[in-house]
Amino acid sequence: MPVFDTGRAAPTFSLEGRVAIVTGAAGLLGRQHCRALARAGAAVVATDLDIAACQAVVRELAETNGIAQLNAHAIAADITVPESLARLRDLTLERCGRIDVLVNNAAVNDRFDDDAAAAELSRFERYPLDRWRRALDVNVTGTFLCCQVLGSEMARRRAGSIINIASTYGMVGPDQRIYRRTDGSQSFWKSGVYPASKGAVLAFTRFLATYWADAGVRVNSLSPGGVAQDGQSPSFVDAYTSRTPLGRMAAPDELGGALVFLASDASSYVTGTNVVVDGGWTAW
After folding, report:
1. Is the whole model's pTM more than 0.85, yes or no?
2. Is the dihedral of CA 30, 35, 38, 39 positive or negative?
């Protein structure tokens, strides 16, 4: 039986000396992604549309993790605009000297002004075309552009890890029953654009993983299940948890381990795959 000796130490989860860009950094999961990467030793570039929100993320990192300001940077960018992403790339290189990790986290999910609008406009038969186009522009085109503009720098250096945040709804159809009120009425319908866009992210991940395999850039996706957050109705939480083998929703920080795994050398032989963190939601 052959014995393989690579002549190097076993890969670790450390991100010391690495530079990671996180899009959608000001959101619930974006903040947690930044925190997990920073705790693993990475210099983090927090990017979102609003510079003040990005700066708040950087302050939070410094306050909660004891991370020096120089190791966290706030740079505003619109991921649907190539020129904005080019500026993000150039400023990151100017401040940090390199790009090692890209987390494509920014995404549009349905939000409605009131319950009546949610119940009416979220139905497939009446779903607004402008909402469909906007979600595809951010969730799919934005991911494509981030990889094209920022990932190309990794390919030029022949090293890097791209993590596209997808969803269980890119793998299975939404269970519309979990959005019913206790009286049986439907408060909301999960629209078709979110599953369609996240399914596209999974397919794009596989494409790019094979395309850049010989350039030293690994490309994977991370698919979260439902995450607990303020404002969720008790009936929704009960319905979701009863549908989940582990019997609860994810805490916001429970994606960090999988994210750091994919970002670090611990996953050096992993590309083109989808890591699912859903409490077993897609297991049955």
Report:
1. yes
2. negative
Give the pairing type, strands 72-74 and 101-104.
unpaired
**Which of the residues are catalytic?**
194
Q: What's phi and psi for 71, nearest 5 deg?
A: -100, 5
What is the tens place of the pLDDT at every residue in 48-93?
Answer: 999 999 999 999 998 876 554 458 999 999 999 999 999 999 999 9
* Cα 252 to chain centroid, rounded: 12
> Using one digit for the tens of pLDDT, what is the confidence trace for 178-203?
999 888 888 888 999 999 999 999 99
Q: Which tokens hold the place of 186?
A: 């439907």
What domains does the chain contain, in order, with CATH numbers? 19-279 (3.40.50.720)
Residue 140 burial (CB < 10 Å; 0-12/13-18/19+)? buried
Q: Rg of the chain over CA atoms, in angstroms?
A: 19
- Residue 153: pLDDT above 80? yes
**Residues near 48 by beta carbon (within 8 Å), at least 6 away in sequence:** 23, 24, 25, 26, 27, 30, 54, 57, 76, 77, 106
